[in-house]
Amino acid sequence: MRSFLEIKKHYNFTAEDEKRLLGLSPVMVDNVDKVVNSVHDWIIQTDVALKLFKNDTIMNHIMNQVRKWFISLFSGKYDSAFYDYLIRIGQKHEKAGVDPHFISRAMNIVRNKCIDILSKEIENSEQRAGFLISLEKILDITLDIINASYIEEEIKVYSPAYRLKSRIVGYGEIFSQFLNMALVLGLIIVTLAVVYLCGRDIYEIFVGKLEQTIVTALGSVLILWVMLELINTEIVHLKGGKFKISVFVGVALVTTIREVMISTLKHDSIEFIGALVASVLVIGIIYWLVKRTEEEKR
């Protein structure tokens, strides 16, 4: 399956869409019963669909799941956890033997009911149009992922090679997540060490030479700032966000700048300081190029 980032990019699902959907949350939560009832009414009127529900307990459970899913559409959180949640929905539908046609039809009912709710609740036509665009995107994305995971589950049944491939990929993803969490833990430990270094340098301001210790402490604060940015970047990546190489280049840049400041105070050789300054220039250019590339890919 495609990655969630790729899917969102194809549907042009932006931060503005996330903001709109989150803004719709109060309205949609208040009207969630109407949506659930619409799906329920369609099921009981469709003999083929009704056969999947053997008793009222199963029906109530499914309706509660529909309610949970619908509310999640307006949570404002569209990360890897949301992506995995939709995949599991598709997998469960495949195991239950639900025809993809009925999934699409149910989504159509939800879509129509949402349009009806927007028409009644949002008076401003321009604002309503914006909400509708974002709503259409998230419903299309949801249907895309559910159906894709459904098809993938079907392929696994008939293709041992594909089943083996899926298992290997699954284990690889678990291993990758484990390494990412280990990386975050490592960054936290390093950041704590930087905090200690920063605290020590600040302490030196009061007991050492003021002009030297202030510059050293400033360099430590810069490194601490970059470490925090590194942790935030990795957390965003774990949630399904983009991985920013520029942050790592920034670490090298700030570290080198700190060395220049310290070397200047120590009165190191001109050649050594010149080499550090040249390094700052080169890393700075690399940082600018990487940052520019990341901005263009947004």
Automatic annotation (TrEMBL):
GO molecular function: heme binding; oxygen binding
Protein's cellular compartments: Cell membrane
Keyword Phosphoprotein: no
Cellular component aspect of the GO annotation: plasma membrane
Pfam families attached to this UniProt entry: Protoglobin (PF11563), PsiE (PF06146)
Keywords assigned: Cell membrane, Membrane, Transmembrane, Transmembrane helix
Keyword Glycosyltransferase: no
Protein's name in the database: Heme-binding sensor globin domain-containing protein
Transmembrane segment boundaries: 174-197, 212-231, 243-260, 272-290
